[in-house]
């Protein structure tokens, strides 16, 4: 059978690597060279989006344009949902058309502070189903890939989630999000307290949803959950987790319900048992959906 999307996936891998080189040369410069750091002051101008802690840089915008232009040249009829294009007013609706879902830098706050976990995330969906996902963790120089039905890989090596079924023997990844509204922070902390006090071995967060999900797929943590993420944070990572043998769900009711890429809520875990336990422990609030027209 003809593998229709393989050319698109090969293009995504190349684009992610090139994009990663653009962000990571910047990030490494920030780590190592104070003089260059000052010289690049303008280029590193940090702007804000939905809140004073939702950061964006010119590199985010430049990298997104770089990826979109290169895809357009090769696949002129395909559509895009890109984080920075949506921030600039483009619509964020997932249709049945072939759609590239792009987070040019997942972990911009890390990038700005030279905290060394930054990823380029490219998901590709057709009929609202993710066909492939590419996450390039550029400072680690690790290329995570998955094709639907064909497994998940890191630099070509197959990935498999952890086989730990006991949440008390587990590490759970999560994040604090970018809202500093005290009520929202209380809800996040109350969920975190419940998870921590199960008790689990530990709670971690890389500062990027895409890398957190690759950590689940690699078996380094048993689960990742977060409320407040966006479709571009999770499109690629969600396929990498499921193709590594993991499960994905929303946070509704007792069993979470099926993952909805636009709902801004996710539990990604090595097993249904651990995922459902997390769903029972967390406060399932619902931020405005990504495809809600009036969310900005
Ligand atoms: O804006 P960015 O950097 O693309 O992404 C936002 C993000 O890094 O923030 C969350 C932390 O709350 C992560 O889970 C998510 O991936
Ligand atoms: Mg992101
Ligand atoms: Mg981003």
UniProtKB/TrEMBL annotation:
Mg(2+) binds at residues 83, 103, 105-106, 233. Its cofactor is Mg(2+). InterPro entries: IMPase (IPR033942), Inositol_monoP_metal-BS (IPR020583), Inositol_monoPase_Li-sen (IPR020552), Inositol_monophosphatase-like (IPR000760), Inositol_monophosphatase_CS (IPR020550). GO terms for cellular component: cytoplasm. SUPFAM superfamilies: Carbohydrate phosphatase. PANTHER family: INOSITOL MONOPHOSPHATASE, INOSITOL MONOPHOSPHATASE 1. Keywords: Cytoplasm, Hydrolase, Lithium, Magnesium, Metal-binding. This is Inositol-1-monophosphatase. It catalyses: 1D-myo-inositol 1-phosphate + H2O = myo-inositol + phosphate; a myo-inositol phosphate + H2O = myo-inositol + phosphate; 1D-myo-inositol 5-phosphate + H2O = myo-inositol + phosphate; 1D-myo-inositol 4-phosphate + H2O = myo-inositol + phosphate. Belongs to the inositol monophosphatase superfamily. It is found in: Cytoplasm. It is an enzyme of class 3 (hydrolase).
């Amino acid at each position: 059978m003809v593998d229709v999307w393989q050319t698109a996936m090969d293009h995504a891998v190349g684009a992610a690597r090139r994009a990663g080189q653009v962000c990571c040369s910047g990030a490494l410069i920030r780590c190592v060279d104070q003089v260059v750091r000052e010289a690049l002051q303008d280029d590193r101008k940090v702007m804000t989006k939905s809140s004073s802690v939702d950061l964006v840089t010119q590199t985010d915008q430049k990298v997104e344009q770089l990826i979109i232009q290169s895809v357009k040249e090769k696949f002129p009829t395909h559509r895009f949902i890109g984080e920075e294009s949506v921030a600039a007013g483009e619509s964020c609706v997932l249709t049945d058309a072939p759609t590239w879902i792009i987070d040019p830098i997942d972990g911009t706050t890390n990038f700005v502070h030279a905290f060394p976990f930054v990823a380029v995330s490219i998901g590709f969906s057709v009929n609202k189903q993710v066909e492939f996902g590419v996450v390039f963790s550029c400072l680690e120089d690790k290329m995570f890939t998955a094709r639907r039905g064909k497994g998940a890989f890191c630099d070509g090596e197959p990935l498999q989630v952890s086989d730990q079924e006991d949440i008390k023997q587990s590490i759970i990844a999560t994040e604090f999000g970018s809202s500093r509204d005290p009520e929202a922070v209380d809800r996040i902390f109350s969920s975190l307290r419940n998870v921590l006090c199960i008790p689990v071995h530990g709670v971690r967060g890389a500062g990027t949803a895409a890398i957190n999900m690759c950590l689940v797929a690699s078996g380094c943590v048993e689960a990742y959950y977060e409320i407040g993420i966006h479709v571009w944070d999770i499109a690629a990572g969600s396929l990498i987790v499921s193709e590594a043998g993991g499960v994905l769900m929303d946070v509704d009711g007792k069993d979470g319900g099926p993952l909805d890429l636009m709902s801004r809520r996710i539990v990604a875990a090595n097993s249904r048992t651990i995922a459902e336990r997390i769903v029972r422990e967390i406060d399932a609030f619902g931020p405005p959906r990504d495809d809600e027209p009036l969310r900005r």
